Amino acid sequence: KMTQQMRDLQLAQARKPPGPSSPNAAKRLYRNLSGKFRVNYASFDEGSLAGRGEKEKLRKSYLFQSNAALFEAVELQDLDRVQELLKQYSPEELDLNTPNSEGLLPLDIAIMTNNAPIAKALLQAGAKESPHFVSLESRSLHLSTLVREAEQRVNELTAQVVNEAPNADCSEKEKQLKAWEWRYRLYKRMKAGFEHARVPDAPTNVHLSVASSSSVQVTFSEPLSVNSAVVTKYKVEWSCSPTFSPLLGEAVMDKLQNLHFTIQGLVSGTAYYVQVSAYNMKGWGPPQVSVPPFAIPSNWREYDGRAPRRRGQAEALDHLLGQVKTVHQHCICHEPCKNQPQSRKHSVSKSLKHLFHPGSKFLKTLKRGLYLTAIFYKDDNILVTHEDQIPVVEIDDTYSCLLMQDFLWFTKVSCMWDEILWLRQCVTVSQSSCSCILQTRFKMLLAISQMQGLLGIQDLGQVFFEPIKDKQGNILIVTLKEVKTNQTFESVRWVPICKLQTSRKSVSSPEEPTALDMLLISVQDKLAYHQRSSHALSPGLYLGYLKLCSAVDQIRVLVPEQLPNILCHVKIRSNPNISREEWEWLQKMASVEEPVPAEPEAETSQNQLFQELQVAIKELMTLINIPLQEAKDFRLYSQEVLDFGDQVSFLLLLPPSDDVCTAPGQNNPYTPHSGFLTLPLQIFELGEEG
């Protein structure tokens, strides 16, 4: 094993980038080798019981070697190698913030040699500066000491090489001399970099916005000039005075992945001034006051004291459902289910008897009727029966025209997959005298129970927004569910989707495909729809476009294909909150009769929102293919901001009142580009709720 480790080390040395190795790298390699030898001797003494400890020590030695490799890559200014190591190991494994024997960290070497790309890569990974440098004087003294000691070592080795006769020892000392000469130049370069650098300029694009009724958020960009030294942290200060005296608080940011900071715990209705300054190894630069210069924590609801629309709704619905269940538990229709769980009276329908018959199984072909199919997928695989068929069960073999009301009722039932048995028991009242609609819905519940029983799972997923219909009179309701764990199912197995599509033999002609063939042909599109409909928007304020079109039995809404659970939209800004001042300005703008209201004052939050809205409206008009000159007739919905949780909010842009909803036969004056579809309004509402 020792020989193999030596061979591995030789290979590692062969892969190192060209350039002289440093004496510190040699020291670290020696310590690394010593650690490996100690591991092997221990293994001889302790036998097999030390196997686990040996592996752990070996792992630590490899991590130690990766730490040495990172130092050397930074010293050699090898950006690719630095990025490779940061990607391969965690900061803890690299000991990213543990100083070496010279009291330096990788970030110290990068910033003092003014290697901005490497310094930024290290900062993104969480690197910090050495805690030894508590002042400018201590850093300067430390660098002078390193330069002096390296120069002394070079002089000593030079004298030894000149005075000794050529031999093996002399050759080794010449290598050491070259290494120390290289290190001497490195320390001199670091010292010169430190002496040449100055404090950074002020940060740029410092923007202040209201984040909530008790917080404000400041965003900013790097200084235009860092004056030969990379910025390693920022300081945010806030006060109730424009002179920042006294200060109310400050926060130092040393994690620079995102240059924004939210100041929490503020008093609503109070003005707060904010400024930001940058820091490099020479100290703090001048502060930059934000634009606007102050912000007042507030929320648009404070304008008229409006309560959140959804507050307590979910709890109220749960309470109502619990009350309904309590009443139905004592209903006479439940008694047969409790007393005779395995037997049914003769009045029970034939389809219910078939459900509990041991011969119940999936269908292979469709024979004119209403059917339910469940598509479960994982990566590129789909769940099929042992006959390589997508799971299908019959709902009603006499139903040839699916009414939209029945389909929409089915989609609502999909929100209660776990309650199907209870729902079925509630619908069994007076089956002999119930309406055709109730009979159809009862059969839907039976089919759901059958599918759940055959698969051995309750949750059948999300209903696709429209059923599949063929010319043979078959109607197929499709549910979709992505499986992300190693879940087991009954009577089914996984197969690649492409294999299922190529191996299945169609029983219909290309001109008149059956609903099953149509499903198989379009299964990738349906899976893509399902995945996209579960995507969430990133936090922010959005401008949405509401466009409806009506048909005989439904109203449909225009949505983007890439995000079908959300209206057509563009992002206004990353801050989702609308402040009271901004909302008050929007109310005034909506009330004026002039088509173009006066712009708000400069350097105010209202002016910033005005500019953001102008950009967003132009982008939205381009997205949905509406000429910009037509936008003058559009209206901004000013009754409320649509809040979706705490992180996403919408302002709505509405067409002229006559064009909000296009009636049947009416020409749509605005035809969107490709990439949009229309969903039944009830389906969209279910998806938006999810």
UniProtKB/TrEMBL annotation:
Residues 1-25 are annotated as: Disordered. PROSITE patterns: FN3 (PS50853). It holds the Pfam family fn3. GO terms for cellular component: spindle. One of its GO terms (biological process) is establishment of mitotic spindle orientation. InterPro entries: ANKFN1 (IPR039269), Ankyrin_rpt-contain_sf (IPR036770), FN3_dom (IPR003961), FN3_sf (IPR036116), Ig-like_fold (IPR013783). It comes from the Eukaryota. Residues 202-299 form the Fibronectin type-III domain. This is ANKF1 protein. It comes from Crotophaga sulcirostris (Groove-billed ani).
